[in-house]
Records
---
Amino acid sequence: MNCLKFAELLQLKPLYETDKNIEVEGVYIGDLLSVVMSKAKENYVWITIQTHINIVAVAELLELACIIVVEGMNVEKETVEKAKELNIPIFSTQESAYNIACKLSSMGVK
Amino acid sequence: MNNRPLKRYSYRIIANDFMVAGKGSSSIKSNLKSLGIDATIIRRIAIISYEAEMNIVIHSFGGKIHCDIYENKIVLISEDTGPGIKDVDLAMTEGYSTATESVRELGFGAGMGLPNMKKYSDNFEITTGSEGTRITVTVYL
Ligand SMILES: Nc1ncnc2c1ncn2[C@@H]1O[C@H](COP(=O)(O)OP(=O)(O)OP(=O)(O)O)[C@@H](O)[C@H]1O
Ligand SMILES: [Mg+2]
């Protein structure tokens, strides 16, 4: 499953989208950066409620597929700017991490 | 054997500067990439350098990170100017953190940084005192 495609299917709000054709290889949910750092892998979707600029650094270092900020958290302007600079797709949604994860799972993202 | 590194990349890390935090690690990563280093090694170094960098930002008065490239290994050195770690065994315990509430709100303070650094390294050394902390981490190629 491609990042852009499920973003559309899940009606995520794109804060920054790329035309990078990333095949998603998994999902990790977490809000503690050093736990995410240790557990999330390359091409994973990262679901979080964190919105600070540091999430982009984490995503870039781990080469994650994209960040989905859930629960309607307001993402700082600096975070979106950093995502653009580093070319990391970032989306937001009102839904919960659990709902998004369930939907991703039903779409075949394991 | 010549024990000087083939290459050294150094970055100054400023205390409490959350807006640029991660930049040193990001630069190290792209340098290692351009050297053609194996992706698994790069991932380990990225995790180690990020945790070291954030610890300097959050817990120290500022410092530097050096990434030394040798024929058979990469050595990452994190050095800062204090206040040092009072109890290293405790600091190395998963879940132990002195991070403040405001830093925890940003997602730091799981108390996993130092344990992660150790976990992803082949060799991990730490010396610390009130004048500062120096951590030397080796990853073999
Ligand atoms: N460079 C440093 N200078 C002084 N104290 C430090 C330094 N690095 C770590 N510490 C101390 O060791 C504790 C544990 O560090 P560790 O990186 O494991 O966790 P953390 O930084 O608190 O949280 P996390 O890394 O999970 O976001 C810190 O809370 C802090 O008290
Ligand atoms: Mg830490």
---
Amino acid sequence: MTDVTQQLPLAIEPPPRAASGLIGWLRANLFSSAFNSILTLLGVAFLAMTIPPFIRWAVVDAVWSAPNSRACAGAGACWAFIHEKFRFILFGTYPYEEQWRPFWAVLIFLALILASCDRRLWGRRLVLLWLAGLAVVGVLMWGEVFGLSYVGTELWSGLPLTLIIAVVGIAFAFPLAILLALGRRSRLPAVRTICVAYIELIRGVPLITVLFMASVMLPLFLPTGVTIDKLLRAQVALILFAAAYLAEVIRGGLQAIPRGQIEAADALGLGYWQRTRLIVLPQALAMVIPPLVNTFIGTFKDTTLVIIIGLFDLLGTINASLNDANWRGTSVEAYVFAAVFYFCFCFFMSRYSYMLEREFNKGRRR
Amino acid sequence: MTALDQETPIIELRGVDKWYGDFHVLRNINLDVAKGERVVVCGPSGSGKSTMIRCINRLEDHQRGQIIVAGIELTSDVKNVEAIRREVGMVFQQFNLFPHLTVLENLTLAPIWVRKMPKKEADETARLYLERVRIPEQADKYPGQLSGGQQQRVAIARSLCMKPEIMLFDEPTSALDPEMIKEVLDVMIELAEEGMTMVCVTHEMGFARTVADTMVFMDRGEIVERGPPKEFFANPKSDRTKLFLSQILAH
Ligand SMILES: Nc1ncnc2c1ncn2[C@@H]1O[C@H](COP(=O)(O)OP(=O)(O)OP(=O)(O)O)[C@@H](O)[C@H]1O
Ligand SMILES: [Mg+2]
């Protein structure tokens, strides 16, 4: 055997030369056929037509500081408006001298979000970290302890409000959604019926309706004298709404778990909750990361709807600052700024989910 | 290990019947398995072998009759069922390893969560059993990175880590390529030689001849014939057994 291979050495054939270098890449990816070439040229033409004017508007001709929008009159963007209103956009009607408090609240939120990205922290420690973080945020925002003056939720606005509604909303909606999804597959008919009814009911109405009901109709059912904080009502409405959608996404993952996995867990003597926590959910959730994050992103953007019940989130404060008579005609700048802000957050979420997905699939070949 | 132990069977099935809807899948099954006994179950496809063996750890429930395992009667009481499952290991045709956990984590999961064993001890036990199924070097891989034969040996080790009194095997080699069957059977033979109580559904007649104390032949939901392998293979009494054996031994 060895003799044969020694006598007839196999010819060493190099792998086919991949189109290398810039030219090769261009040819392979952009000009591989006539049709492709046309598409490429059209794309380039479109970009050439749109990008330079936008850059001229947003950077070259932009006015960075001016006393009012008339002084800004020109071809470019009036970033002076954002500059002037920046603090109001961020913290809105929160008392001016106390705005260091929401500032720290925002930083704590960002730190918590970043910490959650580290998989090594996942588990009980992260939950404790979040509870501690939320408690500190609550103390900072409300005050009334440690010599901080009291600031009611009706004054909370801008970025901290957006973050609170979005983060608290997702943080509570997610576990609720898991319970709903499990309940929908329960063997107990009562549990199943309740979960199905809840999910179908909530999915059947628009978020605006749920928000309106929470803010207008709920007080009608409460005994006189009992009031529930407006922010709390909006928060609960958003949680209930997001949970219904998340539950359906999670159910998709649960359905994809092979029966054999559950049988193997049962045969080892694991109880229902152990089996669910250790075997079913880790696999089910890993499978639905893309639609899950899709729903998270949707929820994050849905928070802007709280404006209709009179809460001023970031988009609300941006809108409100447009009412200033000194700054007429700056709505484009305002909305571009809002778009950039929301885009950054959502883009971060989607990149992170992409990374998670790859991490979960590492070393897992079926 | 008193005389009583020898005589009271560790698994008792008394007049067990089961239906899937209108379909009568198990008919009046009576089966006793003594401690340390090796029972091999065979029979044509669809005869109810899997259903019977899965009733023993209540992956399926029966509708009539009694099943008593290690002195505990199987009822719908969850505590009873979980108590029995701790003592009964099961190996499936499709391995059913947990793909999101490493081999070692697959092995230590149940001891840690069900037996409340400290992690360090569970790790040591797991490595011991991986050694015994001859794949100690695969501990940190994921199941998807192993061959079928290796996966099935991990599955056997996973059950053994719970230190069960009884092992159930449901066609453990049927999903394997021929060259991998032997490595799994070798592990099972070793286990049998150590005196494990085993109920094994398999069509590996060579294995059955080597290890079985009792052969059980099932057809259409009934136990048609049973006996020591020598007799069972040499002169089967029923025509259905003869037909089955002639078909299965023909190739
Ligand atoms: N969940 C179920 N619902 C309805 N019928 C079922 C179900 N599971 C099994 N059966 C039927 O019960 C019969 C016995 O099935 P079982 O799996 O026990 O057979 P088996 O002897 O293990 O066969 P095989 O050798 O093919 O594995 C078959 O006819 C099968 O179609
Ligand atoms: Mg079967």
